[in-house]
Amino acid sequence: NILRRKVLQNIDLEPFDLSNIRKQMRRSDIILYFSVFENNIYASTITSGSYDMHHIELSDDDISRIDTLVESLSTDRINLKELQWIKEQIIDELDIDERYTNYYVIPDGFLYHIPLEILPRNDVATNYSYGDASFMIEHASISYANSLKDLERGFNHSPELTHNLEFLGFGISDFQNTTSQMQLDRTLPPLPLAEREVSEIVSLLDRLPNSQFHLSNNSTRNRFRETAGDSRILHVASHSEVYENDPLYSLIYLNSDDDLEGDSDNSGLIYAYELFGMELSNEMVMLNSCESGSGNYIQGSGIVGFNRAFNYAGVQSLILNLWSIRDRSAYELSVSFYTYLNEGMGKNEAMRKAKIDYINQNNSNPSYWGSFVVYGNSDPVVSSFNTWALGLALMVVAMVSLLFTWVRLYGVSVRRL
Predict the structure, then answer these.
(1) Sign of the CA dihedral 68, 73, 77, 80?
(2) What is the pTM of this model?
(3) Among candidates 409, 402, 346, 354, which has minimal Cα distance to 379?
(4) What is the largest distance, in Å, between two alpha-carbon atoms of the chain?
(5) What is the DSSP letter of 102?
(6) Cβ-Cβ contacts under 8 Å for 22 (sequence gap 6 or more)
(7) CA gap 304, 8 in Å, rounded
(8) DSSP notation for 278-332
(9) How far apart are CA 155 and CA 211, in angstroms?
(10) What residues contact 417, with CB distance under 8 A and at least 6 apart?
(11) Which tens digit of pLDDT belongs to each residue from 236-277?
């Protein structure tokens, strides 16, 4: 009860400085701020030079239609016509200029469950003509925040903290017939590519060399609690479950520690409520697990569960899943995302590129690629400046300097050819 009160009191009542936010926005940036009250949506569009408020009223039938759409997102049969209808009802009413290609979205209500990136930009031919559709992610990079205050914190660029590790990964493929804590008649299925995902990410992060990962039986609850806060980037590839009735009991599945057999604190489970008490100064956490970004929401505070727990613990940005996706899709999107991060892209742009690659090279059905969302600070995790180019430039400068020194000393004339 004490923790629940703390979570409820954590709704952002601190004043935010809108002028400070707008000063830091680029010409291509736009903030979409939504408030949902019963059948009414109040949407604000904020740019560096303008602020507009829009009111959208939905009928009871519209709300029922939206609920059906949300339930369908985790299936393989997302109805494009319904996504197009949502865009026409809400996004098109905001009359957003095409020049805005970087969206910061503060959702509310059902909009927490429908990522803007999966909405079609134009009319679609049929309900399931995914290959012919053009999606919003192909036009703009999109990231999310729980409040304008959270967004302001992200814009303010938190000071860099010192960590012993640049990257820390946990991955489990075989759950050894572990039974679900939420559905006691269900056994957790294996994730064949989870361990490969973590080890491959470490191998490609050549600009973040101080990395470490734990797989299978080494991926334990106690190791997570001891080391999770000591890395710039934390990545978890495992199962998780969101407890809708009490999101603080949502959990991440890790392994128990053989050395602590019989210890009551050796369950192998990390509950959301535990994260509130941990000091996690990570620059980024990617929780690549089932429905890690879902759960109940509180007006003005966002999803209660992993989202709010990691945010409260001090994490600057989060990559979460809104619904369950296939193991191979999770693996391919994650590896592609980190490839672009390693090149110096911001988190939102790296995710955009990863999704576009998946659409073009694998499957354009949004159920496969649309569940990943970026919350919080979108800054790059590595410098975009090419160190190879720097070395080449320095070598050229040195050679030119040497040439002119030689000319000055020996009187050799240089002619331009």
Answers:
(1) positive
(2) 0.87
(3) 346
(4) 89
(5) E
(6) 46, 47, 48, 49
(7) 9
(8) S----SEEEEESTTTT-S-EETTTEETTHHHHHHHHT-SEEEEESS---HHHHHH
(9) 27
(10) none
(11) 999 998 887 777 888 999 998 876 665 566 788 999 889 888
